[in-house]
């Protein structure tokens, strides 16, 4: 089975002995890919919360799919946390479009090591 994939490579400068290439896919099996924005506020723990925002990785349009996501929280109480995961499957709307639900826990960070919970929905 062959799947047509279109996109481009982006060369990321690194040290002379190590560098990387990022692959940006623009079409998967002839269908355009898309992303979603996401944002929210973490749970309130150890006397504070954090804001976060980002854009998911691309996924194919018109078929059932999920998206990977990655970002850092705002810098509050002298630290920040990493957020990463995979959204749930697409939830299609009767009027067209779709969104994804996501949830998880942040990395453990801070002067008093701790983590926060987060959950939300992506943009349409």
Number of separate strands: 12
User: Uncertain regions: pLDDT < 50 for 5+ in a row?
Assistant: none
Roughly what fraction of the amino acids lie in strands?
Answer: over 45%
The total tally of domains equals 1
Order of helices and strands: EEEEEEEEEEEE
Largest sheet: 4 strands, antiparallel
Structural class: mainly beta
Categorize the overall geometry.
Answer: flat
* Helical content (DSSP H or I, runs of 4+): under 10%
The N- to C-terminal Cα distance equals 31 Å
Total number of helices = 0
| Cross-sheet strand order for the largest sheet | 1-2-3-6
Mean pLDDT: 89
- Give me the Rg, rounded: 17 Å
Protein name: YmaF family protein
InterPro entries: YmaF
Biased composition (Basic residues): 113-124
Pfam families: YmaF
Structure description:
This protein is 0% helix and 46% strand. It contains no helices and twelve strands. The strands form five sheets. A four-stranded antiparallel β-sheet has the order 1-2-3-6, with no helix packed on it. A hairpin with a 2-residue loop joins strand 2 (20-28) and strand 3 (31-34). 18% of the residues are buried.
Summarize the entry for a quick read.
With 124 residues, the chain is mainly β. The chain is built from no helices and twelve strands.
What key phrases describe this protein's structure?
4-stranded antiparallel beta sheet, 124 residues, mainly beta, single chain, flat, two-stranded antiparallel ribbon
Question: What order do the helices and strands come in, and which of them pair?
Answer:
Layout: E1 5-12, E2 20-28, E3 31-34, E4 37-41, E5 51-55, E6 59-60, E7 68-72, E8 82-86, E9 91-92, E10 98-99, E11 101-105, E12 117-121
């Amino acid at each position: 089975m062959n799947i047509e994939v279109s996109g481009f490579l982006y060369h990321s400068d690194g040290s002379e002995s190590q560098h990387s290439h990022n692959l940006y896919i623009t079409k998967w099996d002839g269908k355009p890919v898309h992303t979603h924005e996401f944002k929210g506020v973490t749970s309130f723990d150890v006397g504070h919360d954090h804001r976060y925002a980002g854009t998911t990785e691309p996924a194919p349009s018109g078929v059932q799919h999920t998206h990977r996501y990655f970002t850092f929280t705002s810098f509050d109480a002298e630290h920040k946390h990493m957020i990463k995961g995979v959204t749930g499957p697409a939830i299609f709307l009767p009027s067209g479009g779709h969104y994804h639900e996501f949830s998880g826990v942040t990395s453990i960070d801070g002067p008093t090591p701790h983590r926060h919970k987060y959950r939300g929905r992506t943009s349409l």
